[in-house]
């Protein structure tokens, strides 16, 4: 029986949206597993917390035109790239009759375009090192829609990017998969009333909300050799409940 190789610090994982609730837990968990992590976010309060824990950080707006040059500069001093986690996202806009072109464009500039640019930038690096794994984090609203068409459409686009990237990169031993998180206990949901949290939790098959740790574990699975025959796949972590925003 083939033994799965151990995670080693000689591999780097990039994580966008690193200062959010799911992002911070993902960075910490991947670091604990032995990977070198490059945490990317614009948040000036929470991102330094990761730096204090020994995690490499890059403070930048994900839609900044300097994203790729600055990422490449950071990677020059880090171990070879193995993984990319496109977790950054913004829920911006309004109902269709009030939706502005600016909010529509910003949704795609944050939720989709950086994932494309980073995939395009790191794929050759992964190819040089024998392969890699890319995890795109989307939302169930990409399937069921939402009150904000800009958000739902941008999240639906992540599925097309994932499946197409998986087709393009499979020959280079680079896997690309999509993760759909359920409603997760983060900064946003902490502000919800207890009644709202309970109402949403009751709609899940387990009767509770997801935790950032569980999302981190799902991402780690897709990055690891334990999922080595998964590409172009969707890991559904909605627990039977697809909630719109």
Short description:
The chain is an alpha/beta fold and 245 residues long. It is built from ten helices and seven strands.
Q: Which terms summarize this structure?
A:
single chain; alpha/beta; Rossmann fold; 10 helices; 7 strands
CATH classification class: Alpha Beta
> Which residues sit in consecutive blocks of at least 5 with pLDDT less than 50?
none
Q: Which structural class is indicated by helix and strand composition?
A: alpha/beta
Strand tally is: 7
Query: How do the strands line up in the largest sheet?
Result: 3-2-1-4-5-6-7
Largest sheet: 7 strands, parallel
Shape: globular
Helix coverage percent:
40-55%
Terminus-to-terminus distance: 46 Å
Q: Helix-strand pattern, N to C?
A: EHEHEHEHHEHHEHHHE
| Name of the CATH architecture | 3-Layer(aba) Sandwich
Total discrete domains:
1
Within CATH, the superfamily carries the name NAD(P)-binding Rossmann-like Domain
Please report the number of helical segments. Answer: 10
Q: What percentage of the residues does DSSP assign to strands (E)? A: 15-25%
Counting copies of identical and different chains, the oligomeric state is single chain
* Overall pLDDT confidence: 91
- Rg measurement, Å: 17 Å
> Would you give the CATH topology?
Rossmann fold
Blueprint of the fold:
Layout: E1 12-16, H1 21-33, E2 36-41, H2 47-52, E3 56-59, H3 67-75, E4 81-86, H4 101-111, H5 113-128, E5 132-137, H6 141-144, H7 149-169, E6 174-181, H8 187-190, H9 194-202, H10 212-223, E7 234-237
Parallel strand pairs: 1-2, 1-4, 2-3, 4-5, 5-6, 6-7
Helix pairs in contact: 1-10, 4-7, 5-7
